[in-house]
Amino acid sequence: MKTGKIVKIVGKGAALRQSLALDPQPVDVVLTTGAARYCMSFGGTPTFNAGKRFLATNAPPPNACP
After folding, report:
1. Are 40 and 62 in contact, with CB atoms under 8 Å apart?
2. Is the dihedral of CA 28, 16, 5, 58 positive or negative?
3. Rounded to an integer, what distance in angstroms lies between the CA atom of residue 53 and that of residue 45?
4. Closest of 36, 47, 44 to residue 62, by C-alpha
5. pLDDT tens by residue, 9-48
6. DSSP code, position 38
7. Dist CA 20 CA 15 (whole Å)
8. What is this structure's pTM?
9. Who's near 29: CB < 8 A, 6+ residues apart?
């Protein structure tokens, strides 16, 4: 992971806990690897197709990592 680089998250299947029945904006993600924590918030300019896809571009960074 590098600061300022693009992050892409793709998920599908029964283990995916987020439904796309309704617009999930914003999507907040906390990635923990060892002692490091990375916080992301996907909002910005969204494109949402119910039941199929959520895409966010130009999302600002989150205020803090919980």
Report:
1. yes
2. negative
3. 14
4. 44
5. 777 777 777 778 888 887 888 888 899 888 887 777 888 8
6. E
7. 14
8. 0.58
9. 9, 39, 40, 41, 42
CA–CA separation, 51 vs 59, rounded Å? 22
Cross-strand partners of 30: 39
pLDDT per position as a tens digit, 37-65: 888 877 778 888 888 888 888 877 777 77
Spatial contact of 43 and 55, defined as CB atoms under 8 Å apart: no
16 - beta bridge partners? none
Report the distance separating Cα 12 and Cα 18, nearest Å. 9
